[in-house]
Write a structure and sequence with these properties.
By secondary structure, the protein is α+β, with helices and mostly antiparallel strands. It has three domains: 91 residues, Pseudouridine synthase (2-Layer Sandwich), CATH 3.30.2350.10; 133 residues, Pseudouridine synthase, CATH 3.30.2350.10; 67 residues, Archaeosine Trna-guanine Transglycosylase, Chain: A, domain 4, CATH 2.30.130.10. The chain has eight helices and 20 strands. Helix 1 runs parallel beside helix 6. It is globular and about 70 Å long. The two termini are 13 Å apart. The relative contact order is 0.17.
């Protein structure tokens, strides 16, 4: 069984809990998730099965979308509702103030990961150090907020918003930073991940639904193939005479391409198929003397 399950992670489960349940339910050893969701958060968590675990980092690199509830006026140790209250301030924020502050966070920026996170420093996770009462200096990481849309402002202190962002973005930290910019502080009260790349809430299944389908031997009904998961990449089909070179991870020139799904661009990653339409891997598109060629980026066989 090779493919990706679009799991709806419910509150109370860690991402590793989800992987453990999927592994036990499907009796599969090779199972991996595509990006940690906090236990109190819920929503889309793609889980890769079998050979598809090779695609975990590709899916993880995709654009993320969230629906978050920001509570103004209360700052916590964890930047979310699970932490201890550090400070409370009165909130006197207008909708115009809020929109101006939110707009200032759209674009590329440096974000410092929270202490209560799975980021590793010297081999130890930050949240482990935080639980020991330690706080260390963290290196800022470049992230990008593509868009923030305020859905509801519930005066004086609740804001529901939709966020589209790059991988590595901590919505908890974004909420805390917006609160800081408004001068009253704040934390993330709730979080729902609505999309990861091509995976959305609309076709996500809960673990209870997965178990029911597995008992009926119907798991394949919800298993997305590797081909479907990478359909946003251009597709290239290779002639039979280059099959051996293709499977050995060799460089293949354009004259051996039999079909392209769209015009190619240097530097793009393409999904490459053999002459029997079997997916072989992801290849990087390069150019030499005005001729395209491809070289292995990630083999999927």
């Amino acid at each position: 069984m090779d493919g990706i399950l679009n799991i709806y992670k419910e509150k109370g489960f860690t991402s590793h809990d989800v992987v453990a349940v999927v592994r036990k339910t499907l009796h599969m050893k090779k199972v991996g998730h595509t990006g940690t969701l906090d236990p109190d958060a819920e929503g889309v968590l793609p889980v890769c099965i079998g050979k598809a675990t090779k695609l975990s980092d590709i899916i993880m690199d995709g654009r993320k979308s969230y629906r978050a509830m920001l509570r103004l006026g209360i700052t916590t140790t964890t930047e979310d509702a699970s932490g201890q209250v550090l400070e409370e301030k009165p909130v006197a924020v207008t909708e115009e103030d809020l929109r101006r502050a939110v707009a200032s966070f759209i674009g590329k920026q440096e974000q410092i990961p929270p202490m209560y996170s799975a980021v590793k420093v010297n081999g130890k996770k930050l949240y482990e150090l935080a639980r020991e009462g330690k706080e260390i200096q963290r290196r800022a990481r470049t992230i990008e907020i593509y868009d923030i849309r305020i859905r509801h402002f519930l005066p004086p202190d609740y804001v529901e918003m939709d966020v589209d962002c790059s991988k590595g973005t901590y919505i908890r930290t974004l909420c805390a930073d917006i609160g800081k910019a408004l001068g009253c502080g704040g934390h993330m009260a709730e979080l729902l991940r609505t999309a990861t790349g091509a995976f959305t809430l609309e076709n996500a299944v809960k673990l209870s639904e997965l178990k029911a389908l597995a008992e009926q031997n119907r798991t394949e009904e919800i298993l997305l193939t590797m081909e479907e998961a990478i359909k946003e990449f251009p597709a290239i089909h290779i002639a039979a005479e280059s099959t051996k070179l293709l499977y050995n991870g060799g460089k293949i020139f354009e004259r051996f391409f039999t079909k392209k799904s769209r015009p190619l661009q240097v530097g793009e990653i393409a999904a490459v198929f053999d002459s029997q339409n079997a997916l072989v891997g992801l290849y990087e598109i390069q150019q030499e003397e005005n001729h395209f060629f491809i070289k292995p980026f990630k083999m999927l066989i």
